[in-house]
Design brief:
Chains A, B: Belongs to the metallo-dependent hydrolases superfamily. ATZ/TRZ family. The structure is a homodimer. By secondary structure, the first copy, chain A, is an alpha/beta fold. Chain A is built from 14 helices and 19 strands. In chain A, helix 9 links the parallel strand 12 and strand 13. The longest helix of chain A has 19 residues.
Chain lengths: ~475, ~475
């Protein structure tokens, strides 16, 4: 099986960049990182060269060496804490709709079509390729209600080597007759079947894990939500759902659950708020709800591109961070219009600026903060903060090699920009280069991606 | 000279898409557009094929034929109504600054370095390549205070065939000692010298034109502004400047021009508001100022990416359009972080949604409206609405060939995405394809660009 194929002991030479705190990047120029056969980082050296590395670590004299040439750096793999793989073909299609009519018009018909496994194969395979190409090494996926297609998505992730939380979507009400769970019993049985399958193909859960996935409160009855809470408890599984994305949605939840104190209380009552819970959006959460989420140890997936595209609002991320909530980024395709977490970093910066226009400068997120949310923040959201998100001894090598474009004397490149949208002129500091990448970079700059030491994506520019 | 090189009479076959009104796109499938040796559109046919075209237009039987294969369409070239070519190397570098400290920290030192012509050659050549690669066929450029470097930018545009308004920047106060005009007389003489030079290299003004460019009110004295107004009048030149971008800037203008009724009045008094004037930003204009601008026939360049990045605000574009102001899009590099007008379309959509979050749904711009601003709106801003911006007989062939990516059965592309970020699965309508391009497309999708019939940019995918 691809996931367990052996990898050579490897020394990665070049600049490495990672977040050491919410506001600080570490830039290690002339670095060397040693990764063993199990994909574990065994040493991290700065300001060094290969001779010194071999001297200091004689056991590594026969290790493979990967030397990052030209402008560029190693960066931790991105963690996408919320996206919908089956909605990928709908990217860019929403017109002027907002959440609830958008679901009916675009989303449900597309998701329903995943009863056809060959269609699921095409779309999921394409989407996993896409997310890998953008440097996403871990992804929390919503699938559809269909068990076979959901299991197929887990197979594809395992085979391609992308870490994934894969969730069969549960929805037993307020959904079209043609696309819903027919009863609570069948819903729980189907979710259980998918959990069992995913654990059977990757018993250690190193690469793929199941995740209990009530679509969102309006599409599940109270009894169904409670049964899912119970299922998650029994199976010790992760949980993902949406919360407080849009004002109309909040009004609907209030109407559907008149006895609940709040949207958050609906989930809390059902036993769905745990330290393993990922709550997408949270744009309009009250102070009281935020505190309940914090008390339960549940996490927030911030999806700014989607929140902007369907005019949901701008989540108060500075306030979330100040009170100690755990926050990561989610692309939320196809409410979001891009599978790239780098684009989501930009969107997080923009939406924080829109908050700043009303709330004051304190609301602004810096480049460093956005990158933190995209890596260490995301790792904490999916419960993997001890394994990925940064480059320390003992962590696993989930990384991307970033290469930037170089402008030659004279400047004329005859219109060839295969090396991507970032222009480096040569006088920029290492920090400038990181900033240029964050503001202008795309998948062309992500020339290689590793998960747990395994090379899972590469472009023609890797080792050219 | 490249600009006057002859081009073959050409029939362009394939789908063409353009805006016919602010809210309506026309999508002509199986179209044919005939472009003569002068780059003028001579016929536009829909739902046709080459045999019928030859029958109907026998004079064109020997014309060259360009057949757009696969997913894609012809679209009018984009018009960038405001950008700063010398700031290109600073793209992505602004941290948390806002307008005034950003100018001192990043902008002035970079612009001052354009006293070095070889540096100017490298940066300008690179930037013109970049804007062409994004389908920008007409661009209003701010250069720097330096006459030789400004003239060089005009030379490069003429040689590469990009239509450009090229402006020597005028600034005689509130600017660093190392980077400013030393007197009003020298400022006017230098601006005049650059106007004369640009008119000498392209006497018809078909490709390059000069534009009088007071940086913005705070960096010019009243007398200097009036002298520039006089210069524009005498030379019948276009004018470009910034207005009401940022609240601190507005406060500064009020302090510097205590006798003026408003920021707009400062320019109006100096004779700088004419039908040939491009005003960038206009985020915080009062109703009264908007009316003066409309009365004078001056135009607005909307620069949403920049306005967001440096937290200037969200311009009320719906209100501008409703009152009949002429509006185009500007990338405003490097306040804006991308040279792409397609990205600017997205940014215009986003910022309209941020306004909608406070002002209501009416504020939202649709995809079609953003594309209108990027083409016909921009054409009207630069005074070329009779020549470019759409595909009608008598207009000039300023166009881009857009090709989209095709997902094959099975979906696995082995991570190769040379054909860009847009995935077309085959079941999408032509309108869906346009939407996917707007939300996800990039320069990889722009495989060829023509200005006045001349091929000015192509990628490997053109005719592959």
């Amino acid at each position: 099986m691809a996931a367990s194929s052996s990898i050579p002991k490897t020394i990665y030479l070049g600049t490495f960049v990672h977040c050491v705190s919410l506001s600080d990047l570490e830039i290690g120029e002339n670095g060397a990182i040693g990764v063993d056969e199990n994909g574990i980082i065994r040493f991290v050296e700065k300001d060094t060269e290969l001779g010194h590395v071999h001297e200091k670590h004689p056991d590594w004299n026969n290790a493979e060496v990967i030397h990052l040439k030209g402008n560029g750096f190693y960066f931790p793999g991105f963690i996408d804490t919320h996206t919908h793989a089956p909605q990928h073909p709908n990217t860019g299609l929403f017109g002027k709709t907002t959440l609830l009519d958008w679901l009916d018009t675009y989303t449900f018909p597309m998701e329903a079509s995943f009863s056809d496994l060959s269609r699921a194969q095409t779309i999921y395979s394409n989407f996993v390729s896409r997310t890998l190409s953008h440097g996403t090494t871990t992804c929390a996926y919503y699938a559809t209600v269909h068990v076979p297609a959901t299991n197929l998505l887990a197979d594809i992730c395992l085979q391609r080597g992308q870490r994934a939380l894969v969730g069969r979507v549960c929805m037993n009400t307020m959904s079209p007759e043609y696309y819903r769970d027919q009863s609570i019993d069948s819903a729980i049985a189907d979710s259980k079947a998918s959990i069992d399958y995913i654990r059977s193909i990757d018993p250690t859960g190193d690469i793929v894990k199941p995740i209990v996935t009530p679509r969102f409160a309006p599409s599940c009855t109270s009894d169904c939500l409670s049964a899912l809470g119970q299922l998650a408890k029994e199976t010790e599984a992760h949980i993902q759902t949406h919360i407080s994305e849009n004002k109309n949605e909040n009004a609907l939840v209030k109407e559907l659950f008149p006895d609940s104190k709040s949207y958050t209380d609906v989930y809390d009552t059902a036993g769905l708020l745990t330290p393993k819970t990922i709550l997408a959006h949270g744009v309009h959460l009250s102070q009281e709800e935020r505190q309940v989420i914090k008390d339960r140890g549940a996490k927030i997936s911030h999806c700014p591109a989607s929140n902007t595209a369907i005019t949901s609002g701008c989540a108060p991320i500075r306030e979330f961070l100040d009170m100690g909530l755990t926050v990561g980024l989610g692309t939320d395709v196809s409410g979001g219009f891009s599978p790239s977490i780098l684009e989501e970093c930009r969107q997080a910066i923009w939406t924080s600026r829109f908050r700043a226009m009303h709330d004051g400068d304190e609301a602004k997120l810096s480049t460093q903060e956005a990158l933190y949310l995209a890596t260490r923040g995301g790792a904490a959201v999916v419960g993997m903060e001890d394994r990925v998100g940064g480059f320390e001894v003992g962590k696993e090598w989930d990384a991307q090699m970033i290469r930037l474009g170089e402008v030659k004397e004279g400047g004329d490149r005859e219109g060839r920009f295969d090396d991507g949208p970032v222009d480096v002129f040569g006088w920029e500091s290492a920090e400038d280069r990181v900033n240029k990448w964050v503001y202008s970079g795309d998948d062309r700059n992500c020339v290689a991606v590793w998960v747990k030491g395994r090379l899972v994506h590469r472009t023609a520019r890797f080792r050219d």
